[in-house]
Amino acid sequence: MNQIAINMYLPEDVLLEINSLHIEGKTLEEKLKLNLSIGLFVSKDISLGKAAQLAGKSLSEFINILNHLNIPTIDYTEEMYEDDIEFMANHEIKRPSV
What is the 3-state secondary structure (H, E, C) of the chain? Predict the structure, then answer.
């Protein structure tokens, strides 16, 4: 994967706050990448796999981080729920009475 370096200016107090947070990552760059990847995933701008890649984590590591932060990794909609209920109702196993 090709990478491009970027420079950006942030207020010093913001950098101090980011460094003081108990975010996974040893360096400021690791913390920023993780937070950026989480934000982009939550806003549905990138996939779970791309977010993990951006964060420099394996998929399972990234999922564990999201779980720790109570961020769902699957978008289970009301429509999906209703489809599942309908499916189960139509495919219910008939058990013989005793």
Answer: CCCCCCCCCCCHHHHHHHHHCCCCCCCHHHHHHHHHHHHHHHCCCCCHHHHHHHHCCCHHHHHHHHHHCCCCCCCCCHHHHHHHHHHHHHCCCCCCCC
Beta carbons of 46 and 37 less than 8 angstroms apart:
yes
Using alpha carbons, list the distances in angstroms from residue 51 to 8, 10, 13, 87.
Answer: 21, 22, 26, 32
Give the pLDDT of residue 84.
Answer: 86
- Residues 15 and 80: their CA atoms lie apart, in Å, by 41
Single pTM value for the model: 0.74
Which tops the pLDDT comparison, 76 or 72?
72
The residue type at 69: L
